[in-house]
Design goal:
229 residues, alpha+beta, two-stranded antiparallel ribbon, 9% strand, globular
Length: 229
């Protein structure tokens, strides 16, 4: 059972952690490269602000973005702004998202995201939580995958393992941190299944495209190649 109220509270906490950390930067630091290829820290902050507004659109029944081109143009437009402007925008857009999430609603309804993807409205707060936590790591300012809340990491591994489950281009794999286990990739159909073992942070980093998987142990074959998210 998805608890959207819990997830909204978690988004609020994660956003405050991010705003506090970013508030310690300066204007020059915001222009430095992030860990995402081709994006500065300003790009990441601009994306987070515009994503909050996009998810308000989703919750209120409007298209998430006018178009993919408009989404990209908005990020490019907002990326060069100074630190104070970035912080104010992210704080205000995040507040708009929280307000939309606090409004009475049918959380069992189906909503449409990007590229025709649909989901339950109740999962939208978790999707925002993912954006805030992973992009905090992407900023490269001292917040690492190991610092993520344990319940968040487990749920995101669940989500990503399920996302790649049945994918014809992903070799069948059993993932484990030594305590829990997940399965992903195409059906084994009697063929070999590799076992991928590692810490929760390293498993999540590999699944989310934030780490190469070099720290993982693989038995039964090579580490499966994953398509981009």
């Amino acid at each position: 059972m998805i608890d959207h109220a819990h997830d909204l509270a978690s988004v609020r906490d994660a956003t405050e952690r991010l705003l506090t950390a970013v508030g310690k930067l300066d204007n020059a630091s915001v222009t430095h490269p992030s860990r995402l290829p081709g994006w500065s820290r300003g790009h990441v902050l601009a994306h987070l602000a515009r994503n909050a507004d996009a998810l308000v659109n989703v919750l209120e029944g409007r298209p998430m973005y006018v178009s993919g081109e408009a989404r990209d143009a908005d990020i490019e437009r907002d990326a060069p702004r100074g630190l104070d402007v970035q912080l104010a925008d992210l704080r205000e857009s995040s507040a708009r998202f929280q307000e939309a999430g606090d409004a009475p609603a049918d959380w069992a309804r189906t909503v449409e995201l990007r590229n025709g993807v649909t989901d339950s409205a109740s999962r939208v707060p978790f999707r925002r939580w993912v954006e805030v936590e992973l992009h905090h790591v992407d900023l490269g300012i001292g917040y690492e995958l190991e610092d993520l809340p344990a319940d968040f990491t487990e749920r995101e591994i669940d989500f990503l393992a399920d996302r790649f489950a049945g994918h014809p281009d992903v070799a069948p794999a059993r993932l484990t941190d030594g305590t829990r286990a997940w399965r992903t990739g195409r059906d084994a159909e009697g063929g070999p299944e590799v076992t991928v073992t590692g810490s929760p942070a390293d498993l999540l980093g590999w699944l989310a495209g934030r780490r190469t998987g070099a720290a993982l142990t693989v038995d039964g074959g090579p580490l499966p190649a994953l398509p981009p998210l």
